[in-house]
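Incident review: delayed structure delivery

Summary: a single-chain prediction request sat in the queue longer than the usual turnaround. Root cause was a stuck worker, restarted by the on-call engineer. No data loss occurred. The affected request and its eventual output are reproduced below so the record is complete for anyone auditing the incident later.

Affected input:
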Amino acid sequence: MVSYINSSAAKVERDVSLRPPNRLGIIPSHIIRRQQEQKLRAAVEETNFHPLSQVKGLYLFGGVGCGKTMMMDILFNEAPVQKKQRVHFHQFMLDVHKTMHQIRSQQRTKDAEIDAFDELAQRLISNAELLCFDEMVVSDVSDAMILKRLFNAFYKIGLCAVFTSNRAPDELYKGGLNRESFLPFIRLIKEQCIIHDMQSTVDYRLTSSDAKTYLCPFSNENEEKFDKMFLDFTKAMPPQEVVLRVFGRDVVAPRAVGGICRFDFGELCRAELSAADYEVLAKTFHTWFIEGVPQLPHQDSDIKRRFLTLIDILYERKCKVVMYAEVEPALLEAPPPKLEAGANMSLKEKSLFEMEIGRLIDEGEGSFQMQRCVSRITEMRSAEYLQSEHQGEEVSLDTN
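Output delivered after worker restart:
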């Protein structure tokens, strides 16, 4: 990156200007013609990536708590680049789909629709030459099918990307629907990034835990402690219901005082809430009291997936969490049930219908996610985490 900044290639401007539509939102014909000519030129060239994209990025992978995020944060802070961004991968994909919806909602000609990914890239990385993605995981088919085209558009504009993941590139989206269409993205990552295996089995976040913010098991004594902590934090002020708007619908925090909220496990994970709902709540409230957390079944379920997503988002936003649970963090997932003879079906024997409705989740991926959840809950009890600054944002009560 330093060599690039000091070279003549850095003087090549990045094309981040949006195409100018006319008053009706239709792209003028001369703009379309120019874009078609650029496509023809690009087709006969070996590569049409911006010189910045020749700077090798980095793909760090390894087990939970081995220091991937810490390494990426050091790189991000020390990189001699003014235009840089650090994002959580799942939040980034939410922004991608939201922005793509806005682009496709505009009135455009059929020819202009071909370049939707170019415009998407211009909107997303106009202020980023270095983009760091934390916790990359691909489990949704809609994400998997667009990543190659999206990052190809990024590299045409000019970008150096850094990724952290629990999975090696070749293990991403393993067993997913239409995975053969995802493989070109893996090849692109290998071409554009240095692949580095952290090769560590130690979860360093487990070395500094403090039980003050995690109460278990269920008992009258612990329930009284939990209630007293909430009263102490809120200075005994009466909680009120807060309603936030997320994509045109209401998301309710039933008990909140300022930046402190209190939820029952069922209100968060048995209700039909999405990652976008959790994200807005995490931006709004810096301290969370969550009670009634049960031991989760070993089998996958919507309730379990929501809990794992919630913890990821609270951790990323540096929310402080006081949790009242049935068991210790290490026992939050129940042991696997004993299988009867012949009950262990192969992947090929699973029906296509089960796969399409998302019931079939790769067992290794589920294990990674649960390990990460336990690790993060443990770190969230540490003094260092509790002293970290909440990564919140001002959220309007009429947020769409």
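Verification: Residues 350-363 have pLDDT under 50 and may be disordered.
Action items: add queue-age alerting; document worker restart procedure.
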